[in-house]
Amino acid sequence: MEIDAVQLLKCVTKETTMIKRKHLFTLLIVALTIPFFKGSFVSASELNFAVEPVIPENQRDKTKTYFDLLVKPDIEQTIEINLRNDTENEVIVEPKVHSATTNLNGVVEYGPVDSKKDSTLKYDLNEIVQVENEVKIPAHSSIKVPLKIKMPKEAFDGILAGGITLQEKDTKKSENTETKGLSIQNQYAYVVALVLNENNNPVKPELKLNKVYPDQVNARNVINANLQNSTPNYINQLNVSAKITEKDKSTVLYETTKKAMQMAPNSNFDFPISLSGKKLEAGDYTLELTATTKADRWHWKKNFTIKADEAKKLNAKDVTIKKDYTWIYIVVGIILILVSILLIILILKRKRKKEEEERKKRNRIKRKKKKLAQQQSNQKKDN
């Protein structure tokens, strides 16, 4: 079982004060895991405190630097994390406990996420492990944070996995509310993994394919295949290969393969199948997906439908799709043709009107000449 002992999380806070938005917290896993050794503190320049898990006697593997405990049903145990403050000021830390989840990249998350609790998760870790809402570390001091574990009465096979997030409380009033424009404030936190076992009984992994549906990742169209690990154990070295065809046809429209993923116990994630900038088209489709580990293999064929309104809505938001302006060209062309026809009609009318006026003018001249000639003829007769 491969677990990062401590993860450094970066919390990016964006505040647009011109329109008085509330703080928007987005938790990003930084692409570095801070390794550390037993008996030493983990620290980072972005944080005002350092952490050290105190490994207890019932640790399954004493070489691990995260909590991997062998426990019994209905027992109570208190574990501790050392926090050290080397600064000149008091530091307030807000500990939180979360059950482990799996993100869309097939990576286990031990920190807080927005996703809902998995339907197969019987025991949520934050209901089993109790910790103070905040702890104060005096300047140039160390303290121990106690975490009280109360195991369920009912025995279970497998693993309960999660993490303890340790984030400094922001005690300074934001000055951004008095300024205009966009400001960005970075906040960091540690996450220490916590794994609870009651025995070493093997648990056979069970992977399920739930719904298949169109969606977007980073403003790009994808087909999501929701995969669920319904067992209380990690699924390691998970390889997934997926391809999509039109229903009852063999031509592959979209395909994605990803290797060496990991799923947390009793968790699910959306495996995204990229459309590579292509438009979503309404219709009936078939997903064929194969998932393998070193010991297991799963295979599914599942039909799904993309509705016209779904496709239209997602296509309009996809930043990689070139917008089709053909209809604009057609409308402009029609307008130009209509304007041209109107101009031709106006020109012809003016020409006909002018010709009619000239004809009438000639007729008037003829009548005058005829009348004059008649008068002259009458005068000659009189003479």
UniProtKB/TrEMBL annotation:
The WxL Interacting Protein peptidoglycan binding domain, residue ranges: 49-167
Entry keyword annotation includes Transport: no
WxL Interacting Protein host binding domain location: 180-315
Keywords: Membrane, Transmembrane, Transmembrane helix
The protein's name in its UniProt record: C-terminal membrane anchored cell surface protein
Region described as Disordered: 352-383
Pfam family, one: WxLIP_PGBD
Stretches that traverse the bilayer: 24-44, 327-348
Signal peptide boundaries: none
Extent of Basic residues compositional bias: 361-372
Biased composition regions of type Polar residues, renumbered to the chain: 373-383
